[in-house]
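Tokens for MFS transporter. Go.
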Amino acid sequence: MVADKRRSIRALAPMNLFLADVRDGVGPYLAIYLLTVRHWQPGPIGIAMSLPGLVAVLLQTPAGSWVDNSQHKRRLLVLASAVVAVSCLVAVTFVSPAIIYATQALTGAATTIYAPVVAAITLGLVGHRRFAQQTGRNEAFNHSGNVLAAMLAGLIGYYWRYEGIFYLVAAMCVLGSWSALRIDPAAINNELARGQSADASDPAAENNSATVSAPVAGPTAGIRQMLANPRILRFAVAVVLFHFANAAMLPLVGQKLALSNQKASALFMSACIIVAQLVMVPVAAWVSRRAPEAGRKPVFLLAFAVLPIRGVLYTLSNNAFFLVSVQVLDGLAGGIFGVISVIMIADLTRGTGRFNFVQGAIATALGIGAALSTVGAGYLVQHFGYRAGFLALAVVATVALGFFWYCVEETNPVLAPNQLPEPATS
């Protein structure tokens, strides 16, 4: 059994590597594809880009509950990957806008599964004590996979045709599914995976028992109890504001690059993604090493702080190399966000049995922020230009920074034992 668990933990690396680009579908490449190949206007492009987020608003929270209750988490990943792969193939086969909208909606539905399932499998395999470290490793491989996919996508788009990028994502769906099936389902503690019980090495259990009470298996917290938790609500508002400011930036940069150099737009977009992802790899590793002992909030504040700076910098020049270099800040913020946000949710839901449900609920809120961001920014750019769009996003990012600073508490149970969630009530 020990060997099976170790083998299953090792399988998390290729799974995160191959599913990296799948989790976002074709991502920002779709905006360029619709602009340069299909000749769409920025407004309809914004609608197409926002559809996955809108679908997530409806399905992400039920998806989290589904993951909490499922005993077949690997199969959920395979099913979601199959839907994304088919959607990619259909999108390049048919030219109707309705088909594009439909495939984006299906992709959005499928991708609601990825984040909660990967986090649940990870927690179920390694427990709370090693969760921060393993989440950082997951994110490092995830970002490495994005680099690999971006390099291949850029070369395919430049030397072949844009449709090849969609085929690439479909291929990664197959490889990601193969990796997920290498995990032994018997090695996953499904109670631990939903945050309902604490593993024996939970750091909260190793501190002074007079001040810290490790959560133990018990009744699952009620949905109303979780949704009414003020700490969870404040955290959700902060990350929604962050995502609202962040979601539209890269697609808008891609459109600027496409307008100035259509043939090389795929290469420049790949460069944007690669620069950010290369920064995210060491940042995620650094965060995972600090997270078990250090506070979550000071590290997360850094991610919030660089976002308004990034929005302003995009207005200073149209030079492609300058725009690509600004992506270093995206890498810094994204590397922190991807690790700390999941860890803070695990902190906030410890002992409640609602880890994946809360992940889904917050992802629903993020979907709202992303959808409003891409649609709003798209039409703002269409009527007032790219400068106005980026400045508006920078203002929202500044509001997000202030809210997180003043309203969100530290969640590390080692540093703030009095902030542990209350036990679930039956």
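Residues 377 and 384 are 10 Å apart (CA to CA).
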